[in-house]
Amino acid sequence: MEKALSFKGISKTFNSKYILKDVSFDIEKGKITAFLGQNGAGKTTTLRIATGLLLPDKGGVLVDQEKIEDAKKHVAFIPDYPYLYEELTGREYLKFIIQLTKLEISQEQVEKEIIYYGLNKEIDKLIKNLSLGNRKKLALLGTLLNRPSVLLLDEFIAGIDPINMKRIKMILKDYVTKWNNAILLSTHQLEVAETFCDALILIDNGVILKRESNLSNVLSGNGNLEEYFINTLHINGDYKND
Ligand SMILES: Nc1ncnc2c1ncn2[C@@H]1O[C@H](COP(=O)(O)OP(=O)(O)OP(=O)(O)O)[C@@H](O)[C@H]1O
């Protein structure tokens, strides 16, 4: 297993309350890992720590065996609602990213990417006027131009229509398989995770309950992912009020 990102004994408290307790897991290169858990389980907090922006109280994150503090540029994060530069058009935004990161890319290639992402009709609108799905696609395009080796996506696939979902799945699959990159994707859409992800991490109440590096093994013995999710949390005593 080639590790892309390793969480090592992360603990985090907010207002003296434990939000993450000794969280340790790896995500692998060449794979899309689903990050599952109930509302408030600690997924976003974990992702924010993995960007190096939120500091843990204990533990650390390694990117390709380097400390996150030294390897931030290799890790990209797209939150559930990506705030971009709202007063720019999509095209101006991409130009800004390219200039800021001194990326060597021809205008022709940028135009090809815009078409590939299905953004050609939207690219000259102000970002503040984009729909959520198109805003997410623009955020993804801008982020992947710089080819980070790890991509962290928080509820990215929520609110995407079926045609755009097909396109986004293709883009994300290509990103991991062609370039041996890794994605950690938090989602509540278990039916999408089931067909789209390769591995899973299940978090509950700030504790990692399951690490499965091969999702198909999980499914062969447990019906579908929804049953697995409910059964695992049930065993953990999470439905004590039922
Ligand atoms: N800045 C903060 N201050 C205090 N508590 C916080 C803060 N950020 C998150 N929390 C708490 O940490 C817990 C975990 O939140 P987090 O957003 O990580 O969960 P999540 O698994 O992403 O949930 P969801 O699926 O609803 O998005 C929640 O109880 C939340 O209220």
UniProtKB/TrEMBL annotation:
Q: Which domain of life is it from?
A: Bacteria
Query: InterPro entries per the record?
Result: AAA+_ATPase (IPR003593), ABC_transporter-like_ATP-bd (IPR003439), ABC_transporter-like_CS (IPR017871), ABC_Transporter_VariousFunc (IPR051782), P-loop_NTPase (IPR027417)
User: Domain named ABC transporter: which ranges?
Assistant: 5-230
Question: Which molecular function GO terms apply here?
Answer: ATP binding
Which keywords does this chain's UniProt record carry?
Answer: ATP-binding, Nucleotide-binding, Transport
Query: What SUPFAM superfamilies does the entry give?
Result: P-loop containing nucleoside triphosphate hydrolases
The name this protein goes by in its record: ABC-2 type transport system ATP-binding protein
Q: Please name the taxonomic classification of the source.
A: Bacteria, Bacillati, Bacillota, Bacilli, Bacillales
